[in-house]
Automatic annotation (TrEMBL):
<dbReference type="InterPro" id="IPR032710">
    <property type="entry name" value="NTF2-like_dom_sf"/>
</dbReference>
<dbReference type="Pfam" id="PF12680">
    <property type="entry name" value="SnoaL_2"/>
</dbReference>
<protein>
    <submittedName>
        <fullName>Nuclear transport factor 2 family protein</fullName>
    </submittedName>
</protein>
<feature type="domain" description="SnoaL-like">
    <location>
        <begin position="8"/>
        <end position="113"/>
    </location>
</feature>
<dbReference type="InterPro" id="IPR037401">
    <property type="entry name" value="SnoaL-like"/>
</dbReference>
Length: 120
């Protein structure tokens, strides 16, 4: 498995974790302490801010999960990957598709994520 895929899978696992305490651990492992996240709808900074933002998104889309869409790629310290969002009960009925660009540190933790909605 390449590094870009590994990073994207860990990132989406944090977004999909519903247990708040477990999600907080995932976020702290995936994101650098001073990380930032920005997309057209929301933003967060630091582990606490990003964890709270993910929790709010989960409340807005209950029963939904993110999945990789396509193959992640990367070079130098940048990773690009696409995702889809669908209800667990109907995974083929996609609600949204997006592409995220992330800068990673030497340990592979996300430092900055900028997300784009491709279709909603």
């Amino acid at each position: 498995m390449n590094q870009a895929t590994h990073i994207a899978e860990r990132y989406l696992a944090a977004w999909n974790e519903r247990e708040p305490a477990v999600r907080r651990v995932h976020v702290a492992e995936v994101f650098a302490p001073d990380a930032s996240y920005l997309d057209p709808i929301m933003r967060g900074s630091g582990v606490d801010g990003i964890d709270a933002m993910i929790g709010a998104a989960q409340q807005q889309f209950p029963g939904c999960r993110f999945a990789l869409h396509g193959t992640p790629s990367g070079h130098n310290d940048v990773v690009r990957f696409s995702w889809s969002l669908a209800a667990e009960a109907a995974p083929d009925a996609v609600l949204a598709v997006g592409t995220d660009f992330a800068t990673v540190d030497a340990e592979g933790r996300l430092v900055r994520v900028t997300g784009f909605l491709d279709a909603a």
